Design the sequence.
């Protein structure tokens, strides 16, 4: 068997059905094998989209997403996507072509040090120097990418290795003496945490992306109900708990819900699960949850104590540890785990500051657009976002009910992620509707892949929230840089409807209340790729916590649903005593 | 930064290309300073031992150790307790010798430090010395007056006393 065949065979042995890629000189041998193989290959129009699509595939399905790019510029075009997957712990395998082994190090045509470049943005990377290494390498790569804290793996694949003949042997057991992720939480730590939680008066759970990666949503809800703890999430944790559940407070952080930001300040016991306390989630770290003892559950020991000092760390898989906690706390006397007064206090407050979604303004308010979008789609619809205001509006106003249904680039904040990620998600989950919500700036970065969704008939709905601005940056300029709008005006081109149509994709412009609902319905019904150009109010901003400030120091007024206007004040419950 | 202490980290790693780059890259990327790093084979086939000398407070060190542990090619990491660790370095010093008197003086110093003369030329002497970094510093200081032409140091490598292993 040849090396190239071994790649395809090993991928298929791992259950891979579809890969996203773009060929080139050094990949000719591999692509020659692909030509008549059963492995489906989607030819994207830019390697960055291959990587984002693989990432979207992974986030939507929980399976490893695979992308391929040629040596040199192909590999460097994959980089943004790999780094995006790395920051959000997404299991992606990126296969990059490389010049023949004999040429490596000679600055050969299209040679780049892919291993060196991707070292800091991968969980691990491999260079295949012999064809016989391939089966074991692919097996290990899948294992590493999808266990412990998930993350991307790169395989650098020289041209001659793809051509080399060898005796294919079924990969032996994976030998990774330096890789043994801790899955089971330490029982003593679990007991300590349970005790701290039961001794607290005002517990709050912070759920991160780890809940989704570990598939622990049911356990999360069960545990939260057991101890009457409200649940807030990071951006990555959105969808880990149904956001219409009374216990859910919505997202925390720089663009978080007011309830979440104020309650975190009042709580006396914070139980963080699968969340890495990013600066966008915590605001000023010295102010963060300053009245609380902290329990930190994470599968990655290096996250413990990295950003926040914790009282009880538990390293392991979120689902297993939640089950352990449910067991321990479940056996305790009711009065010990009862925090229903606290929960009632929090819910009462939450109900005073539910965001207002209905607006009949023209140009459209993003709130109204998101409201109509929500009404037009069902619970199983996968929504992806791009980065910028569009992302934060979605995070803030969109009610996510299920895990893996809200997909967004959190850690790297990659503009251009939303649309290709939607493409990957649709390939992974063909029975679910998929909608990408993008800004005009971000969508334009990847719009060439309209050709891909057209050619392969991948029916995603793209909603461009069109404000003709780099909205998020202009918001900061408005708030913090004296309204000096330096290079954030995008002007009048392109016409997004015509753009889509030039690719043969149906498109429509939405300008008035009511139209979004109708158009989204129609787009989904069409079962074809569809673009909706939504003209929104360019001046709408979302209240925010300025970088480096505490979460309670919010700039701008939350628009909330209630009869009488005026500031909503939060009164802390009781006194702030420590947890133990 | 004042409380930053020097730590000796001993790591057992897979003996394959790129490992040094992974480890060194991790330090730079996370903003931790390496003062010194030595790598060589270990008692086990396929495994190399790295000795890293780094400065930082406890928190920084804990992060470094955890991040090192995350590298797939790193098998084990241990922060060696300086109290029960022997630390040795090899150093070669080429000293200028203008007169016969200087020459014998230098040889005497080398002897006192249990060093050896490993090369002689009409104008120079080369001393080989092993020991703790402090001891090596002391000898270098002593012979400096004669005119040092070249110094090559391996940097310290270390191992725990007694039957303790990592
Ligand atoms: C690749 C990339 N370049 C630059 C940025 C910095 N950035 C963050 S948000 C933003 C504006 C995005 O504008 P647009 O896509 O129109 O979305 P909006 O904020 O208007 O919803 C920019 C430039 C980024 N996040 N990613």
Sequence:
């Amino acid at each position: 068997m040849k090396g190239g065949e071994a790649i395809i065979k090993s991928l298929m042995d791992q259950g891979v059905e579809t890969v996203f890629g773009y060929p080139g000189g050094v990949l000719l041998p591999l692509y020659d094998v692909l030509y008549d193989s059963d492995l489906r290959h989607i030819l994207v129009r830019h390697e960055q989209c291959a990587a984002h699509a693989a990432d979207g595939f992974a986030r939507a399905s929980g399976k490893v997403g695979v992308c391929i790019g040629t040596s040199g510029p192909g590999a460097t075009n994959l980089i943004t996507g790999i780094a995006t997957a790395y920051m959000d712990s997404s299991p992606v395998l990126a296969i990059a072509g490389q010049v023949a082994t004999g040429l490596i190090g000679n600055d050969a045509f299209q040679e780049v040090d892919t291993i060196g470049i991707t070292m800091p943005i991968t969980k691990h990377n491999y260079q295949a120097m012999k064809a016989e290494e391939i089966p074991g390498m692919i097996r290990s790569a899948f294992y590493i990418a999808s266990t412990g804290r998930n993350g991307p793996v790169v395989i650098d694949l020289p041209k001659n290795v793809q051509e080399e003949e060898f005796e294919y042997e079924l990969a032996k057991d994976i030998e990774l003496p330096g890789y043994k992720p801790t899955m089971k939480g330490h029982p003593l730590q679990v007991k300590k945490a349970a005790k701290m939680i039961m001794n607290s008066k005002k517990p709050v759970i912070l759920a991160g992306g780890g809940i989704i990666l570990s598939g622990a949503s049911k356990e999360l809800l069960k545990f939260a109900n057991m101890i009457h703890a409200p649940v807030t999430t990071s951006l990555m944790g959105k969808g880990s708990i149904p956001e219409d559940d009374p216990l859910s407070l919505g997202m925390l952080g720089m663009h978080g819900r007011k309830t979440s930001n104020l309650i975190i300040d009042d709580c006396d016991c914070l139980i963080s699960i699968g969340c890495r306390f990013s600066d966008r989630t915590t605001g000023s770290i010295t102010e963060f949850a300053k009245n609380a003892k902290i329990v930190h559950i994470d599968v990655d020991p290096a996250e413990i104590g990295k950003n926040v000092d914790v009282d009880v760390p538990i390293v392991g898989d979120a689902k297993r540890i939640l089950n352990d906690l449910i067991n321990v706390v479940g056996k305790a006397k009711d009065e010990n785990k009862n925090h229903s007064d606290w929960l009632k206090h929090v819910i009462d407050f939450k109900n005073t500051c539910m965001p207002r979604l209905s607006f009949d303004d023209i140009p459209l308010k993003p709130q109204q657009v998101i409201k109509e979008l929500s009404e037009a789609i069902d619970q199983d619809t996968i929504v992806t976002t791009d980065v910028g205001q569009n992302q934060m509006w979605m995070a803030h106003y969109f009610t996510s009910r299920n895990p893996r249904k809200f997909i967004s680039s959190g850690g790297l904040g990659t503009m251009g992620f939303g649309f290709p990620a939607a493409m990957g998600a649709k390939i992974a989950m063909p029975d679910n509707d998929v909608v990408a919500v993008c800004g005009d700036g971000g969508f334009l970065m990847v719009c060439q892949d309209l050709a891909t969704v057209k050619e392969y008939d991948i029916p995603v709905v793209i909603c461009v929230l069109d404000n003709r601005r780099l909205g998020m940056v202009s918001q900061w300029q408005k708030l913090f840089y004296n309204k000096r709008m330096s290079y954030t005006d995008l002007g009048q081109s392109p016409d997004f409807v015509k753009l889509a149509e030039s690719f043969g994709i149906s498109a429509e412009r939405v300008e008035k209340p009511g139209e979004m609902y109708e158009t989204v319905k129609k787009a989904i019904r069409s079962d074809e790729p569809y673009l909706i150009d939504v003209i929104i109010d360019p001046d709408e901003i979302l209240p925010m916590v300025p970088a480096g400030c505490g979460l309670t120091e919010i700039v701008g007024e939350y628009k909330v649903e209630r009869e009488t206007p005026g500031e909503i004040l939060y009164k802390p419950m009781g006194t702030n005593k420590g947890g133990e | 930064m004042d409380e930053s202490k020097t730590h000796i980290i001993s790591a057992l790693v897979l003996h394959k290309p790129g490992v040094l780059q992974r480890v060194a890259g991790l330090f730079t990327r996370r903003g931790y300073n390496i003062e010194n790093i030595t790598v060589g084979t270990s008692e086990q086939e396929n495994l190399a031992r790295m000795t890293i000398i780094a400065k930082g407070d406890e928190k920084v060190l804990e992060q470094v150790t955890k991040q090192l542990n995350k590298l797939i090619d790193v098998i084990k990491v241990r922060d060696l307790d300086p109290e029960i660790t022997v630390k040795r370095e090899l150093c070669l010093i080429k000293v200028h010798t203008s007169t016969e008197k200087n020459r014998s003086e230098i040889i005497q110093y080398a002897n006192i430090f249990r060093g050896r003369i490993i090369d002689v030329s009409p104008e120079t002497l080369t001393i080989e010395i092993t020991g703790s970094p402090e001891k090596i510093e002391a000898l270098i200081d002593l012979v400096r007056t004669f005119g040092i032409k070249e110094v090559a140091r391996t940097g310290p490598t270390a191992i725990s006393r007694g039957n303790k292993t990592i």
Remarks:
- Chain A has three domains: 3-163, 187-352, 366-535.
- Chain A has 23 helices and 18 strands.
- The first helix of chain A runs from residue 3 to 13.
- Residues A 386-390, 413-416, 439-442, 465, 467, 469-473 surround thiamine diphosphate (CB under 6 Å).
